[in-house]
Amino acid sequence: MVRAIREREPLARIVGLDDNWTSSDLGDHGGALSGRVRQSLQDTDAGGFKNYQFDLVVHLASPASPLRYQADPLRTSVGNAIGAIRCVEWCKPDGVIFTTSTSEVYGDPIVSPQPESYKGQVDCTGPRACYDESKRFTESLFFDAYRTRRVASVRIARLFNVYGPGTLPDDGRAVSNFITQALRGEAITVYGTGQQKRSFTYIDDVVEGLMRMIYDCSYIGPLNIGMDREETVLNIAHCVREQVRLRDADMYSEIVHLAAAVDDPQQRRPDLTLARKLIGWNPRVSYEEGISRTIDYFKEELGL
Amino acid sequence: MVRAIREREPLARIVGLDDNWTSSDLGDHGGALSGRVRQSLQDTDAGGFKNYQFDLVVHLASPASPLRYQADPLRTSVGNAIGAIRCVEWCKPDGVIFTTSTSEVYGDPIVSPQPESYKGQVDCTGPRACYDESKRFTESLFFDAYRTRRVASVRIARLFNVYGPGTLPDDGRAVSNFITQALRGEAITVYGTGQQKRSFTYIDDVVEGLMRMIYDCSYIGPLNIGMDREETVLNIAHCVREQVRLRDADMYSEIVHLAAAVDDPQQRRPDLTLARKLIGWNPRVSYEEGISRTIDYFKEELGL
Hints:
Two copies of one chain form a homodimer.
Chain A: H1 2-8, E1 17-18, H2 25-29, E2 37-38, E3 54-59, H3 66-69, H4 73-90, E4 91-102, H5 129-147, E5 153-159, E6 162-163, H6 174-183, E7 188-191, E8 197-198, E9 201-202, H7 203-215, E10 221-225, E11 231-232, H8 233-247, E12 255-258, H9 273-279, H10 287-302
Parallel strand pairs in A: 1-2, 3-4, 4-5, 5-10, 6-9, 7-12
Antiparallel strand pairs in A: 8-11
């Protein structure tokens, strides 16, 4: 996403802030940004930008892997919430504020697919709440910034299980776990029965959707950006195993089941009616193709 | 609540912070507090207590009337969220953190009565979200403070439509609106049909419940504190009108209907199983009795 914005905007006008908690995306791709700063949003005067006002503020913060965000839940909550407050402060009154929210705002949904109007089923005292509730808080804050005319426009993308090249091998989510395990010849570990369903969305499709939301659309409101083909986690594990074997006939991992994660949603699938209508967006990369590309990327990253 | 805590704790050990946005409760009752400070929680070093650590932190912040909290939604969101973050910072690792959360975390519920395990139906981009979502965020943050052992204990009370003496006559919620209008001989204004139901809970019952939660209970988890007899808003309007007429036979207000409020919940009633079991709490003041006492209080406040 940082790369896509760099290709679009004059570098001298871009400022990036990242505390590199779980990635070094700005470090890798943002070398030429005018004000690249390794600093947390939580600092009172983060990056010395207290009195800056930007035309476009893009809030991509927080790890999205439950393993990562639950490792320090207070940091997750505080980082997202104070980060959101700073973004409002930093946006010009005629500026645009954008954030990557999440399908986690739907919690463990009882409606499928989930339209943007679905209010969700989140346990606000549970172990996933640090992420889910701080994202819900951010959506609420940005909408009020728009309603009170503190900013001119707000765009909120609700992402569904993003994966692909760029993910850390030890990210902790299903696709990266499975690929890393299969490439190393280790057992593939599935939490619970594996019958829980997800809509795994390839990174290139996501970036395409987000760029359209920022630059080609004036719609105020959350938009689902996600694959609308749902797969069980177990099927993904099988797919990874088969594709690794296609590359090396000797590799064939056992699939083992661990205890189910607390509050793990049983299904998650976007209703894409609005995204299709408003930004003409459709996910194009099938999960078979996306997994294949991700395996190639991880093979190189891991030197295998 | 401030009065009840004052009667229980040595005054010299209590510090109160209030920016007096909608009330002057600390000013009225907290005169003898050692560190009474009129200052917002949002200031970086609110009240100069940055490095203090307290045994008990009680977070009562935010107006609860939709009229009031929607008047400045960014202030509501930011005040609640940063207030909650400060409370965690200020609590000793072996201390207790307490907050008055709200039945608004249940949104517009499709389950009735609502047990604490009900996940709610809140529109996180709607006009009530500034209050609802910042309270949900606070619950999440406090639970993580407990789970990560940052604090020893957390108590969360979910309050249902509190009313009674001490409320501002222009508070903006149903009971105070109706009483003020009826006492002034003005028309009583009901939003929508008035068939939406609420569980109006008298202030003395609420304070009794909160004090038990703080001092006589070690339960970690949210507890509903509310009247479990649900009434339509229209019935409350009739009750107010009749009781004002009992005091002055000439007073008899017309009841008029205004447009329904956006996202107004259609029902709201607590399941009190846990509160009964854990703190032996039951609401004792019927709404007829509570309204009668509140009318007497408002008559004096308004000089009528």
